[in-house]
Design brief:
This protein is about 40% helix and about 25% strand. It is an alpha+beta fold. The protein has one domain. A 3-stranded antiparallel β-sheet has the order 3-4-5. Strands 1-2 form a two-stranded antiparallel sheet. Strand 4 and strand 5 form a beta hairpin. The longest helix has 28 residues.
């Protein structure tokens, strides 16, 4: 056997790194891996708090259908409130000088 015959194709090497039973958080600032309970219809990211609806392709392979809108809205409103309070603190500091 030559050295070329021992090398794996790109698909074969990626197959070894495949994680069944996990999904990746769709929040661009998070992108963490989440392992839902088998058969669960929702999963929450422990890192950023986003919650997603799930679809199970087979008993071992979950897929994200989309976010749970009530949770996403709540997280967005909290973040906006924090940003607004930071902006108001900065504007009061500038006005006081």
């Amino acid at each position: 056997m030559s050295a070329d015959e021992k090398k794996l194709s790109a698909a074969e090497s990626l197959r070894k790194t495949r994680t069944y039973g996990k999904v990746r958080c769709h929040n661009p600032s998070c992108m963490g891996r989440i392992q839902p309970e088998p058969g669960a219809d929702r999963v929450k990211c422990p890192t950023c708090g986003m919650e997603y609806r799930l679809y199970w392709v087979n008993p071992r392979l979950p897929r994200i259908r989309g976010p749970v809108w009530d949770v996403a809205r709540k997280i967005r409103e909290q973040k906006l409130a924090e940003l607004e309070s930071q902006m108001s603190k900065k504007s009061t500091k500038k006005g006081g000088k």
